[in-house]
Specification:
about 325 residues, 8 strands, Rossmann fold, alpha/beta, eight-stranded mixed beta sheet
Length: about 325
């Protein structure tokens, strides 16, 4: 009887372990491994306010003008080598009036350097050079996994060095959206040269574990434990980082640069509460703007003029 009970117990444990292993690998392949198509994330749609604005004739004409301007620009394809030997590429736009001012724009999950045309043009109109890297595992850059900002933070230090050494930039800002926002937050905790003047994060998450757990809950109706922990172990083996260590929250505690936090109050993809957590954790000069009616990364669409006004004030203040 005892032997039979032992066999049953061992069998059940093996089934659970194998099941968790299969589940962990599945979620790694869905969320971490590089692929063309990403999952339909919870909260990834447009808010009612943004949808109404996008449908107007004025907005469509404005977007057409921005896209026309984008097509007319001569972006230089630039590249660096990452600390682990990957070739990373990006698009660099030289502004004849920059006088050494530059911004690095960081795209979101499954995005690329071809995105963010509106904010690209706005920075250019302000007289900035613009660098838009493709994150590892995205676009033109090498890499077979998505770093969610953690390994990317080291890549961004190298992009900063590239701008200083190769493009003679003397005043650099980092501005990211969603995963890109988490990337610049994580980068802010690194040792950065004095040429970096400030950080702007739009819709960033606190930690990779918190964000993926949020998605797991709504997409699969599953608790974070134990599947998230198993997926984290698999990610550590296959990609070299864990969900626990990949923390924008811990990084921002080390940041000493001016920080501008932007988040929509209707953000279901990255919960708005995360913006407050990041603000509370930050020790440097900081500003928090919660945008009424804006969903995920919709602040620029919902409140474009206010966004531009607040952004310019932040940039000017950081350069004083």
């Amino acid at each position: 009887m005892k032997k039979r009970l032992l066999r049953i117990t061992i069998t059940v444990v093996l089934i659970i372990v194998i099941g968790l292993g299969i589940g962990g690998n599945y979620f790694y392949n869905v969320g971490i491994k590089r692929s063309q198509d990403g999952p339909a994330l919870h909260g990834g749609g447009s808010s009612a306010v943004a949808a109404s604005i996008k449908g107007t004739k004025e907005q469509q004409e404005k977007l057409a003008e921005i896209m026309k301007w984008t097509e007319e620009q001569q972006f230089e394809i630039v590249q660096i080598k990452s600390y682990d030997g990957l070739t990373l590429k990006g698009r660099y736009l030289k502004n004849p009036n920059s006088n050494g001012k530059a911004v690095i724009l960081a795209h979101g999950y499954k995005g690329s350097s071809e995105q963010m045309p509106g904010i690209t043009k706005y920075y250019y109109d302000l007289g900035y050079d613009v660098l838009k890297p493709d994150a590892r595992g995205h676009g033109m850059s090498e890499g077979d996994y998505i770093g969610y900002g953690w390994h990317d933070r080291k890549d961004y230090v190298k992009w900063v060095d590239f701008l200083i050494d190769k493009k003679s930039e003397s005043a650099i800002f980092l501005h990211g959206f969603s995963m890109g926002a988490a990337t610049v937050l994580m980068t802010s905790g690194e040792k950065l040269p004095t040429e970096v003047k400030g950080i702007i994060e739009d819709s960033g998450y606190t930690t990779v574990k918190a964000e993926l757990s949020h998605q797991l809950k709504y997409l699969y109706h599953l608790p974070a434990f134990p599947i998230m922990d198993v997926t984290s172990v698999i990610t550590n083996v296959r990609a070299g980082y864990t969900f626990d260590e990949a923390s924008a929250l811990e990084s921002v505690k080390k940041n000493r640069l001016p920080l501008f936090i932007i988040h929509g109050d209707q953000d279901d993809l990255v919960p708005t509460e995360m913006a407050y957590e990041i603000y509370d954790a930050a020790k440097s000069k900081k500003e928090l703007w919660i945008v009424p009616g804006a969903g995920h990364t919709e602040a620029y669409t919902v409140a474009e003029q206010e966004y531009q006004k607040r952004l310019k004030a932040f940039l000017d203040s950081a350069l004083e």
